[in-house]
Amino acid sequence: MKLLFELGTEELPALEAPALARALGERVDLLLSEARLPHRQPRVFWTPRRLAVLVEGLPESQEDQVQELRGPAARVGLDGEGNPTQAAIGFARRHGASPEELVRKKVGEREYLFLVVRVPGRPTREVLPRLLPQAVRGLPCSKSMRWDDSGLTFLRPIRWLVCMLDDKVVPVRLGSLTAGGTTRGHRFFGPQEVMIPCPDEYLSRLREAKVLVDPEERRARILAEVRRGGGGGPGGGPPPPHFKFLP
Description:
single chain, 247 residues, alpha+beta, three-stranded antiparallel beta sheet, 6 helices, 12 strands
């Protein structure tokens, strides 16, 4: 499965947007791993009015989790013949198991009865609405501001959210906003709303709306224009070295 998550903002400081986008990607990467959702390395995108993360290779649900529940000490849970006592029977029943499922395990100098249970993973679509807001709230902002009564703070006001898992919208809530499948084009040359039917079409749909959201594509376009216009000196030639640092 593929995940697209975009924050649409008011104009971001040019020098902070790249680092903020990378931090968002790192936060999403970490939280997905902690949530037992294996995935490929996230890709990050940014423009003056957006930060976005694209994650591929997500499973349909979390990996199952194996838990060991510690019960009574073995000397309390088993009688002299090794049969379960009422303490062991009661512990097993509380967890919907039978005493025969209990295993003995040493912890330090004492032996305890344990119940090993497998907790089924939740669908990825149900995990994301709680996970993604955590990723945003944990971002390092040089200065934060409030813009409504939701209590949310960020470097600049967040005006829209996009969250797509394959071709389905994930209704992530952040502050007073709920994510949809609509982003915005270029403020002057393509200001209309832009529908994103799935993560695979994110770059192309924004390109049609006059936005190059991929920083590498944007850098290549800028360098090509500089070369075509003779930006490297009389008659063209390579651009100045500092151009490689353009966001």
